[in-house]
Every structure is written in structure tokens, then in C-alpha cells.
């Protein structure tokens, strides 16, 4: 079975739901608490390459740290810069199997990695 990295915030109910879903499916899950262990630029750039869906969904655009930057949510460079400065604006949860990454909004979306 493929190992899945879950970019996780245990305070987030959607993130906890995604973790439970992966564990119930018997997946080998590596939990990365991205607030405790922020992603570096190379990791963020690689994650963007694997991300399925709209790039703008990678950031929590309603957070003040994002709004104050006035960044373009479709510009990977600006997203990386914003996430390096403010890891808490990373959308969560994100499940990543090393080939594909899916934002778990809703958490059931990550089931696509289990097929």
C-alpha cells in the first residue's frame, strides 16, 4: 500500500476527519503537522506540482495574513512566498501520495488517493 502524507492541523475538524478516513481505510499515514514543521520552499513547489485542482485553493484566502499581502492566488511564486511567511494559511487537510496531492475539502475528496 502507498504511504500518504497528511498535512494536518489537529485543531481542524476537517483535518481530523481526513485522518480518521485514511486510518479506517488502512492506509499507511505519515502525519505532518505543518504548523510545527513548516514546509520549505522546495517542498511547497513540489507540492504545487502534484496538486490536483485549482491552485488558488491551496491558501486560506479569508485569513488576514493572505489579504494583507495582496497576493495573486494563481501565481505559484506568490503562494510559496506567502506560505513561507505564514504557514497557518496553508489549506488543510492535504493528502499527498508522492504522485498526487488532494485538498481534503471535503475530507471525502482524499478517497481518490485510495483507488
Structure in words:
The chain is an alpha+beta fold and 115 residues long. It has one domain (3-113): Glutaredoxin. It has four helices and four strands, in the order βαβαααββ. It has a four-stranded mixed beta sheet, with helices on both faces. Strand 1 (3-8), helix 1 and strand 2 (28-33) form a beta-alpha-beta unit. The mean pLDDT is 95. Keywords: Oxidoreductase. It comes from Halomonas saccharevitans. It holds the Pfam family ArsC. This is Arsenate reductase.
Write a compact overview of the structure shown.
With 115 residues, the chain is of the alpha+beta class. The protein is 33% helix and 16% strand.
CATH architecture: 3-Layer(aba) Sandwich
CATH superfamily membership, which one? Glutaredoxin
Number of domains: 1
Order of helices and strands: EHEHHHEE
Amino acid at each position: 500500500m502507498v504511504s500518504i502524507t497528511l498535512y494536518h492541523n489537529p485543531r481542524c475538524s476537517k483535518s481530523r476527519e481526513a485522518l480518521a478516513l485514511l486510518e479506517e481505510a488502512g492506509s499507511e499515514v505519515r502525519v505532518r503537522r505543518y504548523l510545527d514543521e513548516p514546509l520549505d520552499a522546495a517542498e511547497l513547489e513540489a507540492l504545487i506540482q502534484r496538486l490536483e485542482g485549482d491552485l488558488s485553493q491551496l491558501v486560506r484566502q479569508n485569513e488576514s495574513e493572505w489579504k494583507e499581502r495582496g497576493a495573486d492566488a494563481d501565481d505559484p511564486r506568490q503562494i510559496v512566498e506567502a506560505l513561507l511567511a505564514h504557514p497557518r494559511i496553508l489549506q488543510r487537510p492535504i493528502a499527498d501520495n508522492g504522485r498526487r496531492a488532494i485538498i481534503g475539502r471535503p475530507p471525502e475528496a482524499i478517497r481518490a488517493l485510495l483507488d
